[in-house]
Amino acid sequence: MSTILKSRKILIVPLDWGLGHATRDIPLIHEMLNAGCQVFIAAEGKHAALLQQEFPQLTIFPLPGYRIQYAQKGQFFGLKIIQQIPKIYRAVRYEQRWLKKIVADYQIDAVISDNRFGLYHKTIPTVFITHQLLIKTPFGGWIERTLQKINYHFINKYSACWVPDFAGPNNLSGELAHPAQLPAHVTYIGCLSRFEPKANPVKKYDLLVLISGPEPQRSNLEKLILDQIKSLPVTALIVSGKPGTPQHTAVSERVTQVNHLNAGELNEAMLASDMVLSRSGYTTLMDLAKLNKKAILIPTPGQSEQVYLGEDLMEKGYFYSLPQERFNLQTALEEASRFPFRSFQHEQDMNQYKQVVQQLVQSLK
Q1: Does the N-terminal or the C-terminal CB of the chain have fewer CB atoms within 10 Å?
Q2: Can you tell me the distance from the alpha carbon of 91 to that of 151, in angstroms, rounded to the nearest whole number?
Q3: Sign of the four-CA dihedral 296, 300, 306, 310
Q4: Pairing relation of β-strands 273-278 and 248-250?
Q5: CA torsion angle for 113, 300, 293, 170 (degrees, to 10)?
């Protein structure tokens, strides 16, 4: 009598901080589906809309995010986040109650939490994904050390910690994911990008502008770009980072704006562009590195992680970076044209994450 193998049920939950956590989970979801798993997603708002568009066949549970509010002025970014730590703790406690019920009701076999702290469980494997083992703040010192202790307190409650970067010196995250002290059960899973390079892509755009991140800074950057790009002699596509609200606008004769592109369309647009302008969000950096694209980075004002990544990667010669406070598009394009743009030489396997996912799935059987 043959044995029918039960399809393993895996729940994946991205943090609601920009769209990067949701988009970098896309290749993980594909790999789990390829392994025959039944995948559930928990999200809300634009994160749910994006993942529903990519995976219309999957069940998405409504789960409130941390709903962090962001300062209008960059210099207050860190203080505004610290003020909301009690709200985050309340959300973590809610996540714990919610997860116990979902696991029991749906017989979930494993959970993958992309940077959400309360999704660990006593009886099933749980994975925490992060590229920020060290959490940067504008204040540094004891505040960063305290935040790291809190971070590790939660990470160590999980069965495993997956870091989307390479373990060696040839990496994208610098000291964020390579601090002196690591939490338990860390595995570096390599670059995690939903995009695929192609040979000899046809050029369509001088510039691809990717506007993303939390409000109000997403809208602030969008306004900056729109005010300046109309008068420049560049062929450009602007992607506004607003999934769920389709819109296609001709900004000028040579500039088109869309609210959102799905993964395949954005992959094609990046390949078809000479230069990309974007935030220095970590998921975007992984996409740029995998496709070997030149880029102008504008870190979200006050977001210490993005400021660090922009400065570190510019110093290494990988990308050109400048602050939003003194951003001028014409000047940025001129300076970027003289920048050396060292290639991110990924001698490592860009599909490293697939083996890690397969190992998790095999452990569930």
Answers
A1: N
A2: 15
A3: positive
A4: unpaired
A5: -60
Residue with tokens 């920048």: 339
3-state secondary structure of 193: coil
pLDDT tens digit sequence for 146-156: 888 888 999 99
Name the residue with tokens 């970014």: 77
Provide the pairing of β-strand 255-258 with 236-239.
Answer: parallel
The answer, as to whether pTM is greater than 0.85, is yes
Nearest to 94 by CA among 82, 84, 102, 104: 102
How far is the CA of 12 from the CAs of 86, 108, 297, in angstroms? 24, 11, 29
Q: Which helix (H) or strand (E) is 295 found in, with range?
A: strand 295-297
In this structure, the strands spanning 126-129 and 110-114 are parallel
Question: Cα–Cα distance between 129 and 163 in angstroms, integer?
Answer: 6
- Rounded to a whole number of angstroms, the distance between the first and last alpha carbons of the chain is 19
The confidence score (pLDDT) of residue 2 equals 38
One-letter identity of residue 343: S
Please report which confidence band the pLDDT of residue 1 belongs to, taking 50, 70 and 90 as the band edges. Answer: very low
Which tokens go with 195? 């995009």
Pairing mode of beta strands 9-14, 110-114: parallel
Tokens matching residue 151: 């971070």
Q: Rounded CA gap, 229 and 198, in Å? A: 28
